[in-house]
Design a protein that fits this description.
six-stranded mixed β-barrel, 56% helix, 13 helices, 16% strand, elongated, alpha+beta
Amino acid sequence: MTRYTTRLSAVTEGVRIAIDAVRANKVRAGLTILGIAVGVFVVVAIAAAVHGINESVAKDFASTGPTTFFVSRYPISFENCDGSENTCKWLRNPPIRSGEIEALRRLPTVDAVGERLDWGAKVRYRGTELSATSVEGYSAEWTAISAPEVYPGRAFTQAEARTGARVAVITTLMAERLFGDADPIGKTVTLNDVPFDVIGVFKDNSSFLSGGERPKAVVPVTALVRHIGARESNIGLAVKPRDNRAPALARDLAIDDVTATLRGLRGARPAEASSFAIITQDKLFETYDKIFGMFFLVMIALSGVGLIVGGVGVVAIMMISVTERTREIGVRKALGATRATILWQFLVEAATLTGIGGMIGLFVGWIGTLAIRTFTPIEASIPPLAVVAALGASAITGILFGILPASRAAKLDPVEALRYE
């Protein structure tokens, strides 16, 4: 029990001496603390942003169901491409045609096939105008695949989608900006000067990948092509497999059927590459990891630089502290203090300095997280593990960089130390 009491006393004394050192040498200690605080801030802010992005991506995929996959004219590719068909062979892929879409809808392993086409338009209602607004064209399967919460109003019907009716379902944000507190249902807005009747309002499943919450209108894909001039060649498909108690198997069977059907309709030979891309959510996650994994590593490297700078400051301030307290160390050794006691005291002092920097960095990181949540579409949040890692990294930095001065203090000869002036 006495041993633990002594150790606790040494820790308390080390913390007290470290705080006194900060007060006595504000600039020197402040620079040390600043380096650690910057490193911890970067770790916490990046961890919060990545955690928010991960949650956003998961929400994005959950809105379409875990087994839904996508058929696109173009693959997700990071290959070198100069815009020519020689280096970008997928540019020769033909667009997805209506006959192919209908063939896929008849497959027994497919529950729904939704068309999607992204475009932009100038939206106006009376004197209010929203320029370069996102307009998305969908088939009637939109509600079966993405399950938007349409209220008030309704989504467009199969007949409206097939005939290209000029109807629109808008996001709550667009409704607020165009109509204020007025009821938008039944109002007529213009998309690129073409009138469309608002029939519903929905809460956008906004996320980091989709660009966050923004004014957006959803119209029948046929209307988008026929009335607004969108290019039909860019249509992509979302395919929802028929789930028969085994989601992964159902998805794989649907992918096989979709691939075989499209290759057959396009007359592809067995050894010939497919002229379309099947993109699963696993592939999207893999692409996401490649992009943000590199980004995360760069940010961690930058935070590491901050910790190293702070660590060098710890060495400097602790070496000066050892020099200034040489006589004190001699007195303590003469009174029976062991090398381990002196070493422990100085390591505690170094860890306290970096711990203060870590707490400051954590606090600033929390403020940065609030700023990210407020001013960006990222729902940033600090995971508990990031707090532990940040404070642990700061303390370990203090211990690692404090070993040299602590060891020097512990090895001082008591007689020589007492003679030091």
